[in-house]
Each structure stands twice: as structure tokens, then as C-alpha cells.
Amino acid sequence: MAEIRVEHLRKAFESFVAVEDSTFTVADGEFFVMLGPSGCGKTTTLRMIAGLELPTSGTILLGGEDVTFKRARERDIAFVFQLFALYPHMNVRANIAFPLKCEGLPGAEIGARVEEAARILRISHLLDRSVSGLSSGDRQRVALGRSIVRKPLAFLMDEPLGALDTELREAMIHELRALHDRLGATTVYVTHDQLEAMAMADKIAVMNRGIIEQFGAPRDIYDRPASLFVADFIGQPSMNLIDFRASLAPGASELALGGARVAMPELRMGCPERDLVLGVRPEGVRLDDASPLRGEVFGAEYLGTTQIVTVTTAHGAVRARLPASLKVNAGEPVGLSFRPEKLSIFDRASGRALPSALHDIPYAPRPSSIKHAGGLHG
Amino acid sequence: MAAGISTAHSVVEPSPLVRRIAGAVVILYALITIVPLIWIGLTSLKSPPDSISYPPKILFEPTLEGYCNLFTTRSRQTAEYLQGLPAASGRCEEIARQRSMVVVGASNFVPRFWNSVIIAFGSTFCAVTLGTLAAYGFSRFKVPLKDDLLFFILSTRMMPPIAVAIPIFLMYRELGLSDTKLGMILLYTSVNVSLAVWLLKGFIDEIPREYEEAAMIDGYSRLQAFVKVVLPQATTGIAATAIFCLIFAWNEYAFAVLLTSGTAQTAPPFIPIIIGEGGQDWPAVAAATTLFLIPIVAFTILLRKHLLRGITFGAVRK
Ligand SMILES: Nc1ncnc2c1ncn2[C@@H]1O[C@H](COP(=O)(O)OP(=O)(O)O)[C@@H](O)[C@H]1O
Ligand SMILES: [Mg+2]
């Protein structure tokens, strides 16, 4: 197990820059997720960490050792590919044993370790089956088995759940996280699915067009997005983004939206008059008849315990997450108010969030991140 | 294909009428192809008069005369001389005596046939080995001028190989490669390798890189990954390519006539020579042709499991 440090990593394919000045540290034993839309450079970053792609510039340190230009096989990491890459000409046992065969371990030890990995992943009964007949969930487990059997310094996983159906995916999210808690191995996990990221990560890096937009704990990324991209990308439905124009003084805790005054977290830094964006999550929006911010109900989307009500206002459509029991009718005039402690203010031009009282609170650590002593790597 | 990728093709089930027509066409084609082969097989078992009788005989008394004539050389003798000989030992001697001849030795057929085997299989092995390595390189690495090189390789197949026969003939004479097995192996390899590179590149392109990458991350070198992961998955393509190369090298006639005359002569130029020796001995020619067909048929049957998938060029995957 080891810490992974990536410093100013850059990768250009001819003139196209896939990864730009990427810097982050994955602490020893941490579950780190790279999250971003398709084509943003997640796989490229992961492949550079694995040694399958050489960076154009930058440094990669694995457990303090500079491995930037080392071959993949000299790095002692395991990689779970998006489509599993199970060798079709070998059965399950041979697939899992394949990395160990390379180390020239005695047959008995290889056998024992394959059995152990299979037991952890609950695929012992499949060991002598051919991989081509397996369900995608079982293939996923075999691919994981092949990576955990070697006890590597770190696990790299490229959208390993992407090929599974929703139900299995949810089960695997819990299994993967449980496996991580048990092994305590440093993991870099790539996905475009925010639910996977939120459910599993200790830390998330949100990427867009080769750039890391924000690095932080899941709660941090959700509650105080560092940029408009993150605000828009994270959350389902995503944050309401309301354009307005104002000059804000440092220490301001109120802004004017049309005629309405909206309370917000106290700003730490002001700005001269410019185009700004107010960001508020649907769960921060309430119906409030007394509010001067008026709108008209456009429609509602029923989600079981809650509903997403869309209200058209002079500032655009605003979505509110409201209890499903609340009765709203299309066309009904309503007043809206925002919960002040969850508001974010962004600069439209740069897309960055203005620092405010929201950012005073330290990172919230992941509550369920309990590291077990012992286990496979103990 | 790759475990984890499902490539189920949806195929429209053909209607019964279409099936019947397709079946009839296939049977007709099979008949057209097989009848001459059967005729050759039958002719090889006829006596020389039967083989040229008109109308052709379907029913005849089978004899091994054609095969005996193919494997032996005989000389005609006077009746008195034959009378003085002890009783014939062996089938062929008996048949020869009936034609007032005695067997004087083995013919060149066996060594010529053996030359064909060595040259065809040798050149196929070389072409497929070189082709696999080159195809892997072209498929996986950044090769400068890759497209131009691939086009150049293909372009060597655009003219009929015999167009360069004279330069090759002169070159081989200078280099002492005329009428040598090595020379023929090199020649057929160089003709076949372009086909092999192109065919195999298609097959290797279809093997996801992730397999090798996974192996390399797991601690294997690229060569080990190639041997343990790529080759086993390329067997279909390799088998199909090998058959194409073998068929070319086995059947090649023009260069063989030009460049071989003695020690390295292959079967194709030898077979017509039989016609000339002592009248038109069609049963012997038919016997040679029948035997000549056997290795390629055997090789094809041996690899048929791979071929069905291979010859469709990756259109139908497992
Ligand atoms: N070998 C390559 N050559 C050229 N462009 C590439 C190569 N690999 C990736 N790219 C480009 O880099 C960008 C990032 O790719 P990737 O890292 O695979 O994205 P992600 O995994 O986030 O979907 C994409 O636009 C892709 O087209
Ligand atoms: Mg990707």
C-alpha cells in the first residue's frame, strides 16, 4: 500500500491536450474517485498512473518513489479495466492466477492465494468455469480477483461497474466499498457516475476537459461546488443557477435579485459590478407565500418521498425538492425563498465560486470510512 | 470476442423458400467442384485403355497400375527375356510384366512430392511467423510512415508475381539459389508475407489492447504478453492465413517450372512430365494429382474448426 502523488501532470496527444496540469495526492489507504463526463481525461490520467501511457510532462510518485517513466510491470499496481479484459482462453482460476504465475511462486502458494481471493469475492464455486459463460457481475468479480490476488501497492479501476445493470451496480458499489474497507488498499477509481462516486469515495476529483475542477470529500463537492461546472454536474437534478448582476462588498450577506433580497453566507471577498451566478440546490428552495420572489408552477416530477417542482420565474426556471405530500397545481402562483446557509455565488466569467462563510467549515470526513486492521493485506 | 463485450448480431431468420434455394445453389456448386475431383480419383484407378475409352467408363475393373507407374520407372523387354525371369515379386512388377515391362527402379515422384511438402510448409511457416510479428507491430505501435508501408506491402501483390520472373531467375542464378529448397522457400515466403501481414493485422486489430496491457501491468514483458495473451487469441486468424499461404505455395507452378529442374523440383512441374514419359499415361497423372491433393485437404480438415470463423474475416465472432 502506498500514497500516490501526481504533480503537474499533463498529457497531450499531438495538439489535443487530454490532461492539463493535474495535481493531487491520494493518501495511503484512501478511496479516491475521479469523476467527470466522458472524454474529460479520466482514463488517460489513470493510464499514466498505471504506466500504460507516458505523460507529456509532470511527475508521478508511488509510495514516495518517482515512477513517472517506469514500465507498467515495474510499478506493482493492479488495474481493473472497464470491460474487465478477462483472458477468454483461460478459465476463471487461470485468470486469477495469471499475475502470480509471473512472479514464479510455487504452485501450492498460487493455489492457496487464488482460493483466498475467490473466497473473499465469493466466486469459489466458479473457479473451474470458463470466463465466457459468466454473467457480467461474476466477470466483474473475477477481474477484481485478478487484481487483489497480487497484493499490489494500489488499485486502479476504470469504470469497473459501467457494464453492469443498475441493480447489480448498486450491490457492487457496496461490495467494492466493503472490500476496500477490508483491504485498506489505496484505490483510484474512475467513473462518470456521480452516485458511484458519492457512495464510495473518501475524496473526489471532479474533472472537466482535462482539468481538475475541484478536489475534496463528497460532502464538500456537493455542498460547496468550487465552480459552475461542478455545481451543474453534481446533483440530480443539478443546482439551480440564477444569473444576476451586482457588485458585492466583502462581508456582504445579502444580494438583490430583482426586487427581492436574498440572504447568503457572508462573503469573504467582494467583487466590483459584474455578471454573477447564484447557485442553490433544489433542496435549498422552499415555497414561501410571503416571499417577494414570485413565480408560477410549471410542473412536478414525482419521485416517491419527494417531488421536483419546477417554477418559472423572471430569472428563469427554478427547481425545488419538496415533500411528495405537498399539493401543487400547474399554473399556480407561488413565492420562493432559499435557505441562506447553502447558497453559492459564482463569477460568471471565470466560473469559480466566490469564497464565503460556506468555505470556513473544514472538510467533512467520510463517516463510514472505518479501516479494519488485518484482512488480506494484514 | 472479449469477455465482457457482447456482440450478439441480430440476424433475420431466412424464409423456408430462401433456405431451399440457398441449399440448392450450395449443392449445385459442391457438385460442380467435386465431380472433377471424383473423376480424377476414378481415373487414377483405371487401366490406361480404360482411361481413354469413349464413351467414358463409369464401371471398370480397378487397378493399381496408375499408382505403380507413378512410383516406378520401367523398361520394355523382349518376350524371351521376360520368360527367362523368375516369378514376379510384388503387385507392380506383376502389372509391369503384363505390359511386357520390368520395374527398373523408383521414379522421382516421392522426392519431388517431398520437396513440395518441405517448400510449401516451410514457406508457410516463415510467412505466417513474420506476418504475425509484423502485423502485431503495425497494429500496436506507432510506426513511422505506417500507412505507406502497409500500402507498399500490399502493392507487392498487385502485379502477378510471374512478372518479375526473369529478374528473379537471374538473381537466383547469381546467388546460387536456383533449384534449391531454400531459394523456393524464400521466394514463396516473400510472395505470401504481404498477404499474411494484411490478413493478420485485421485479426490482431480486433484483439483489444487491454489484454496485453492487463498482462503487462501484472508483471509480464511485452513479449511474454504477446505469447501468452495475444497469440492464443489470434489462432483463428493464424490458421486461416496459414491455409491461404499453404495453398498458394503448394499449387504454385510458374516459378517452380522456371527455377527448379532437379533436386528442388516440386510436384506441380513434375506431374506434367509424367505425361511425356512413354505415351500419355493418364492414370499415373491422375494418381499423382490425387496424392497431391491429400496434404492440403488434410491440413484444411485439421484446421477447419478455426477456419469457419477465420475465413469470415472477423465478421462473425464467438
Ligand atoms: N491515444 C489517444 N490519441 C488521441 N487522443 C486520445 C487518445 N486517448 C485519449 N484521447 C482523447 O483524450 C480525451 C480524454 O480521453 P479519456 O481519458 O479516455 O477520457 P475519459 O476516460 O474521461 O472518458 C478524449 O477526448 C480522447 O479522444
Ligand atoms: Mg474512460
TrEMBL record, chain A:
Q: Which GO terms describe its biological process?
A: carbohydrate transport
Species the sequence originates in? Methylobrevis albus
- Similarity comment: Belongs to the ABC transporter superfamily.
Query: Per the record's keyword annotation, is Nucleotide-binding included, yes or no?
Result: yes
Keywords of this entry:
ATP-binding, Cell membrane, Membrane, Nucleotide-binding, Translocase, Transport
Its name, as the record gives it, is ABC transporter ATP-binding protein
Q: How does it sit in the membrane?
A: Peripheral membrane protein
Q: Which PROSITE patterns does this entry report, sorted A to Z? A: ABC_TRANSPORTER_1, ABC_TRANSPORTER_2
Q: In which domain of life is the source organism classified?
A: Bacteria
Where does the ABC transporter domain start and stop, copy by copy?
Answer: 4-234
Protein's cellular compartments: Cell inner membrane
Cross-referenced InterPro entries: AAA+_ATPase, ABC_transporter-like_ATP-bd, ABC_transporter-like_CS, ABC_transpr_MalK-like, ABC_transpr_MalK/UgpC-like, Mo/tungstate-bd_C_term_dom, NA-bd_OB-fold, P-loop_NTPase
Pfam short name (any one) = ABC_tran
A molecular function (GO) held by this record is: ATP hydrolysis activity
UniProtKB/TrEMBL annotation, chain B:
All copies of the ABC transmembrane type-1 domain together span 113-303
**Matches recorded under CDD domains:** TM_PBP2
Q: InterPro entries, alphabetically?
A: BP-dep_ABC_trans_perm, MetI-like, MetI-like_sf
SUPFAM superfamilies, per database record:
MetI-like (SSF161098)
Transport found in the keyword field: yes
Q: Which family does it belong to?
A: Belongs to the binding-protein-dependent transport system permease family.
What is this protein's record name?
Carbohydrate ABC transporter permease
Query: What species is given as this protein's source?
Result: Methylobrevis albus
Which lineage? Answer: Bacteria, Pseudomonadati, Pseudomonadota, Alphaproteobacteria, Hyphomicrobiales
